[in-house]
Design goal:
17% strand, 4-stranded mixed β-sheet, 502 residues, 4-stranded antiparallel β-sheet, alpha+beta
Length: 502
């Protein structure tokens, strides 16, 4: 299934609205007289065609003999079409986890938190999150004790299965493989206030998260990036390999969800290691030395010394720092040329980073993009026109249920957002929709996620109006994301050509 510009290029669906998946016709011919390897032929029908135009082209062919076939020669990686660029392999490896001597830019990276129970583990309301988590914990502990109490009175071969005893009502608990395993091991779970933290659930959409290994199915290496709420960090989140969405990246500074970017990977500026007692040898990733902070953690730089030396040597510039390299990577990952030329590579493997001709142009632009993307909640809102239906707007008049686009001649008008029954936002520059992250414009993410939703299985309500005490938070967020989008588009367009040097 395609999205965004790729979906628009596919245009009319052959099965009309019956399928969103691109369709190919495959013809296989077995010729007993053929000698040698098989012959692969391909025909691309074209982009932006309606269903009727596509069918008309096929009908005109009349026979496969009349098709102007393109001969396909698979590359060494087995790509038939959308082949990878060989020069990509010569670029710097972005990340590697095998050890400190690895020749890569980052020595650690991680996927975001995969809770497997998002409706329970995330919420715009901190109070609702606490209630939901306590409901899970109480149900779990009750079922755990009941199961082991029953099992203790029966021989091993006569004990009932866990699922025959536990509460399977999705309104009371969300069972996962990990939680069932804990119940079988009779592990008690207690509520921990320190596990409540802010997360980036989707691009520019923050929610409260219960960040805890017992109630998140997979934390991956996130506890090394954010061991406590006190420990600050920055990371570049990017689209994972095999994702259906076009490649993009976004910098963050709070714990990300697994799908903040589609199956994304996060490359941090730092990682943290819990200090071992003085009389105990360190067994952590790279056995680096450092001074523990007041919480007993040692902060390490995630960008390797090898990368720092390589960049300084290549550009003959000892002023380059690891933070400069971090923002250089962010600038490269936003380059339209980079994303276009290496689109096939980026779908199949982690990014590799070239030595662009102008290091500082990409580093400085990457840093400016980072300022907009990290500070989106505090920047000056874009001056959209507010059309109010009340003479004086009070706090409740800014409540949102679901924002929709305006209409013009029966079609969506993206220059207008109907915020609610009292407020309409007008004069949105269409250029703002050019800023795409994780498959959609940033504005589309805001409109989709800042809506009151109810999870059907659990009945849990997620109300974005509870996120902030400021009644104008959401309407000003829309305005701020318009500004972020316009500035991002401007900065991306200012990036120079790569002109990479191998």
């Amino acid at each position: 299934r395609t999205q965004g510009e790729e979906r628009r290029k596919e245009a009319g669906g052959i099965f009309d609205s019956g399928s969103r998946t691109p369709v190919a016709i495959t013809i296989m011919v077995k010729d007993p007289t053929h000698v040698g390897i098989c012959e692969l032929n391909y025909y691309d029908i074209g982009d932006y065609l309606s269903r009727e135009e596509k069918l008309a082209i096929i009908e005109r062919f009349d026979s496969i003999a009349d098709i102007d076939w393109q001969i396909i020669n698979p590359n060494l990686q087995g790509d038939w079409i959308n082949q990878r660029d060989p020069s990509f392999d010569d670029f710097l490896l972005l990340g590697d986890k095998t050890g400190i001597d690895t020749k890569s830019i980052f020595n650690i990276y991680s996927q975001g938190v995969a809770s497997k129970r998002d409706a329970w583990a995330f919420n715009m309301s901190q109070n609702s999150l606490k209630i939901n988590i306590n409901r899970i914990i109480n149900t779990y502990n009750t079922d755990r004790l009941r199961y082991h109490n029953i099992c203790s009175k029966r021989p091993v071969d006569e004990r009932a299965g866990l699922e025959n005893i536990i509460d399977l009502d999705p309104r009371n608990i969300s069972w996962t493989r990990g939680l069932k395993a804990d119940a079988l091991r009779n592990k008690c779970i207690e509520y921990e206030t320190s596990s409540i933290t802010i997360s980036m659930y989707r691009p520019y959409v923050k929610e409260w998260l219960y960040f805890n290994k017992r109630l998140n199915e997979m934390l991956y290496l996130m506890p090394k990036l954010f061991p406590t709420q006190k420990h600050q960090n920055f990371y570049i989140s990017l689209t994972g390999t095999g994702a259906s969405k076009p490649f993009s990246s976004l910098v963050g500074h709070v714990v990300p969800d697994y799908h903040m970017h589609d199956t994304g990977q996060c490359f941090p500026l730092y990682w943290y290691e819990k200090a071992e007692p003085a009389d105990k040898p360190q067994m952590e990733l790279y056995n680096e030395q450092g001074t523990p902070d007041s919480d007993g953690y040692i902060r390490h730089e995630a960008i390797t010394d090898w990368a720092l030396t390589s960049f300084q040597d290549h550009y003959s510039d000892s002023a380059i720092t690891k933070e400069d390299i971090f923002w250089y990577v962010y600038g490269i990952l936003h380059s339209p040329e980079y994303k276009s030329r290496f689109a096939a590579d980026l779908k199949k493997m982690l990014p590799r980073i070239p030595y662009a001709k102008d290091f500082w142009a990409f580093s400085n632009t990457g840093r400016k993009l980072g300022d907009w993307h990290l500070n989106y909640e505090t920047i000056e809102p874009f001056p959209l026109t507010e059309e109010n239906k009340r003479l004086v707007m009070e706090g409740n008049d800014y409540r949102v249920v679901k924002m929709v686009f305006g209409k013009k001649e029966g079609k969506p008008d993206k220059s207008v957002i109907v915020y609610n029954e009292h407020l309409t936002l007008r004069d949105i520059p269409l250029e703002a929709y050019e800023y795409i992250v994780n498959g959609k414009s940033a504005l589309d993410w805001i409109m989709e996620r800042y809506a009151i939703t109810t999870d059907k299985p659990s009945g849990i309500v997620n109300d974005p109006n509870h996120w902030s005490d400021d009644p104008r938070y959401i309407v000003d967020l829309v305005k701020r994301i318009v500004r972020v989008s316009i500035e991002s588009v401007r900065l991306v367009k200012s990036l120079p050509p790569l002109q990479e040097v191998h």
